[in-house]
Every structure is written in C-alpha cells, then in structure tokens.
Amino acid sequence: MRTPPTASDASRRLALSLSAALLAAPRTAAWSAAPERESSEPELVRLYDSAASQYDSLDSGPLASALGLQALRAQATDLCRGRVLEVGVGTGLNLPLYDPGRCESLTAAMRFADASFDSVIDTFSLCVYGRPERALSEMRRVCKPGGRVVLLEHQRSGGALGAYQDATSSAAARLGGKGCVYNQDVAAMARAAGLRVVRQQPALLGVVALYETVPV
C-alpha cells in the first residue's frame, strides 16, 4: 500500500497531465439534486465554492491524518488499475496518491460509453449527490466487467451512534455538513445499483468505510 506522501515527481506529472478538466468535472443528470434532499444543487455549488479554499487543509491536514483519512485515501487509490475514472474529484486531493505505473489514464468526466474504465473511484462524495443510487448506477455502467468500483464514504454506523446519526443527519447536512447526508447505507445502495461488495473496511467507529465492489 502506498503511504500518504508528498507526491512523487511521477505522480505529479500524471496529475498535471490531466489539465483543468479534472478540477471542473461536468455535472450531468446523475448528479442533479433529488427533491427529497434539502439542499438544492445551486446551494451545494455555493457551499462548496465557499469552502474550496479551506477544503484541503481540513480534509488532508493534521487532523485528517490523525484520524487516518489520508491513509484510507491512499488505500482506496491503491486499488485502482488501468483506465481510472475519479468521480467527484473536487480539489484533486487524491491525485498525488495514484501509482502512475499501474494507472494508464485518469479522468473525471462521466460522459462515456458503457464499460469504459477498469477502475472507478469515489471518495467522500456519495453523501452529497442528490440521487446517490443513480450515481452508483452510472459508476457501474462505465466500469468494465471484471473491473472495480472503489468507494470511500461516510456511512451509518450501528447501535447508539447510528441512532444519533439518524437523529442529527438532516440538521448536520443543512447547518455545517455542506449537504453531506452522513447516515446512508452505502452497502445497500451499492447492491441496489448492481455492485457486489467484495471487501468492506470500516473506520472511525463505523461512520466511514472503504468499499471494494465489482459489477454483477
């Protein structure tokens, strides 16, 4: 497994070769907000635009490293091979972590034919998609048979903590969570989208998990 490092020169060259398209992934119908979500797509765009300048320091800074989130990102990208699609690339936090010796190409758009990619990866974005099930279905659609869809996501934990998430999810998403619905059943949504979970690695008392899934 690659450690969460300062990016190697080779990784930096891979990241730079992606150009601006990686940092401006086009929104398609798959990402449009569903009526049941309280935050509309324009509102989420506004929230993330306002948070962009602090996002890296929060999600890859000392606290994120202490919580093991950087190590989880490294594990997730380490599962990727061949032609890779990153969904919800955001500010590009994962780009230095890909192994250019194993990844032939990397992109962030979703307008592709069926079975276009060997690996599809999403990290901490599923919770803000208006229709997460539809997003997962798109990931499955563009993934080749025998490929993998890698998900590193917020999810519902069990027991009292899960009950707390259920009670606070709506307010948290609205007031400070930038639209993130953090009590989703990621495994169930993946199965409903036609993905089989081959490995699930929970972290942080189960509120985060790394999933390795394959199309069925």
UniProtKB/TrEMBL annotation:
Key words of the record: Signal
GO molecular function annotation: S-adenosylmethionine-dependent methyltransferase activity
Domain (Methyltransferase type) ranges: 109-151
Chain coiled-coil ranges: none
Superkingdom assignment: Eukaryota
Signal peptide per UniProt: 1-30
InterPro entries assigned to the protein according to its UniProt record, in alphabetical order: Methyltransf_11, Methyltransf_Superfamily, SAM-dependent_MTases_sf
Protein name in the entry: Methyltransferase type 11 domain-containing protein
